[in-house]
Write a structure and sequence with these properties.
By secondary structure, this protein is an alpha/beta fold. The protein folds into 2 domains: 5-227, Spore Coat Polysaccharide Biosynthesis Protein SpsA, Chain A (Alpha-Beta Complex); 241-449, Rossmann fold. It has helices spanning 34-44, 60-68, 85-93, 115-124, 170-182, 191-197, 218-230, 257-268, 287-301, 324-352, 372-392, 410-416, 427-439, and strands spanning 5-11, 28-29, 32-33, 50-55, 75-80, 102-107, 130-136, 143-144, 150-152, 160-169, 203-207, 248-252, 272-276, 306-309, 355-359, 398-404, 446-449. Strand 2 and strand 3 (32-33) form a beta hairpin. The longest helix has 29 residues, at 324-352. It is elongated.
């Protein structure tokens, strides 16, 4: 019989080291509070059955407000925390009713926890009673004495930096906290430390990830913000063609490349496709063109479910050599075009609670010489998607950006000529990922598509 898996998210810290007016778990990064990013991963992981949030009591209303604006079906308890991390952990652990369950205890301010780590922790509990997550120490670790002088330098190959989650079979971690409650000399703040102190079990170590950082200082907030900007989601599900049947989809940039492939695939799934491009007289850089087009589609279909913008141009040249008119046109198409599409689509997607898909490229992470206008516009698309996702959340409109590898499109061929066979991603694969993303509940994400 499958044992239940509980995730206990500790959010009872006050964040005093950040000197913010609110605890760090409620700071917004990339359109959501830090704790929302953390909860999202556990909510979406199929192995997690229930989630308990242990909160600083004076900020309980913040957590309740977050629950009201999200669809967290797995959160079953919000628990007032204690004065210390150990007390808060004990409150969470002892709220689990079963003695034969699996428990994962995670810091709310580690928003980059991955499904791989969660899955490995859950699996390891079939063999071990206690699990820690850690990465090899990259710096030399020193131990100092009371005079602030080095006492010893442990051999680095045996040193690791601990992370969370820590995972336990419930009977064992409950016993550890029971013993700690009776121990007047107990100073351990770490759950695995309790297991070791009372010699209750071996603690197996699951390999962590360098990006699974804990946000503690102001510098961590800046770093986390950049990590979210560069974060790429990879779709792990397949397209269900039946879910596309009779969906009304408007595609801008539909005459060539990825737009054409998306149009053909969606049509084969039974969707109602309305495709446009400059070749058909619709220019995304003109808001009036986009607005008129969407109005006509809505009048004909009485609904619009999804809107996609793949329209783009790619031009090469140094800034000093290109005319300002040429640069302005490229930016109008590559960036303002997406803004026009999103703004004009909102009234219709409010009614259908539909989705928007924009396109970025791998060049968004770092500007490329000779392609400065293009790569900076693609970076702007990512920031725009992340910001718009938060604005559109109350209307249940989802918006994401597809980030495909180098793809075999006419635009690519025009600018780079022939390239080695098999080196490029095929538009059909991007099309499948695009439709899958539209049907998902993701929003504000950059979705990476690779061969």
């Amino acid at each position: 019989m499958k044992r239940k898996v509980y995730a206990i998210i500790l959010a009872s810290g006050k964040g005093e080291r950040l000197n913010y007016s609110i605890p760090k778990q409620f700071i917004k990064i990339a359109g959501k509070t830090i704790i929302e990013h953390t909860i999202d991963t556990f909510q979406k992981n199929p192995l997690i059955d229930e989630i308990f949030i242990v909160i600083e009591p004076s900020f309980r209303n913040h957590m309740e407000e977050i629950l009201l604006h999200n669809s967290y079906t797995k959160i079953s308890k919000i628990l007032n925390g204690g004065a210390t991390r150990r007390e808060s952990s004990s409150i969470g652990v002892n709220s689990v009713p079963e003695n034969d369950a699996k428990i994962l205890i995670h810091d709310a301010v580690r928003p980059f926890i991955s499904n791989d780590i969660i899955n490995e922790c859950v699996a390891a509990l079939d063999k071990y009673n206690a699990i820690d997550v850690a990465i090899p120490a990259t710096d030399t670790i020193i131990k100092i004495n009371s005079l602030n002088c080095i006492e010893t330098i442990p051999e680095r190959k045996f040193m690791m930096q601990g992370q969370t989650p820590q995972a336990f079979n419930s009977a064992v971690i409950k016993e550890a906290h029971s013993l700690a409650l009776k121990d007047n000399n107990e100073t351990v703040t770490d759950d695995c430390g309790l297991i070791l102190k009372y010699k209750l079990a071996d603690v197996f170590v699951v390999k962590g990830e360098t990006r699974n950082i804990k946000i503690t200082y102001i510098e961590d907030v800046v770093y986390a913000d950049k990590l979210f900007q560069l974060q790429n989601e990879i779709l792990n599900c397949e397209l269900d063609p039946s879910e596309m049947k009779n969906k009304v989809i408007v595609i801008f940039g539909a005459s060539k490349g990825i737009g054409k492939a998306v149009s053909e695939l969606a049509k084969s799934c039974g969707a109602k496709i309305h495709g446009y491009s400059r070749e058909t007289g619709v220019d995304v850089s003109s808001y009036l063109d986009v607005e008129k087009t969407l109005k006509e589609v809505n009048q004909k279909e009485n609904s619009i479910d999804f809107v996609i913008n793949t329209a783009a141009v790619l031009r090469i040249g140094k800034i000093e050599d290109r005319s300002i008119l040429d640069l302005e046109e490229e930016i109008r198409i590559n960036y303002m075009g997406s803004i026009n599409v999103v703004k004009a689509a909102i009234p219709y997607l409010k009614k259908s609670e539909g989705g928007i898909l924009l396109f970025t490229s791998s060049s968004y992470t770092r500007g490329r010489a000779l392609y400065s206008s293009y790569s900076s516009a693609k970076a702007a698309i990512v920031n725009f998607v992340q910001a718009a996702a938060e604005e559109l959340l109350p209307y249940k409109i989802r918006i994401n950006a597809i980030n495909p590898e180098r793809t075999a499109t006419p635009m690519r061929f025009t600018n780079f000529g022939n390239e080695p066979a098999g080196s490029l991603l095929q538009p059909e694969k991007v099309a499948e990922a695009s439709l899958t993303a539209l049907l998902s509940d993701m929003t504000g994400q950059v979705i990476y598509v690779r061969k």
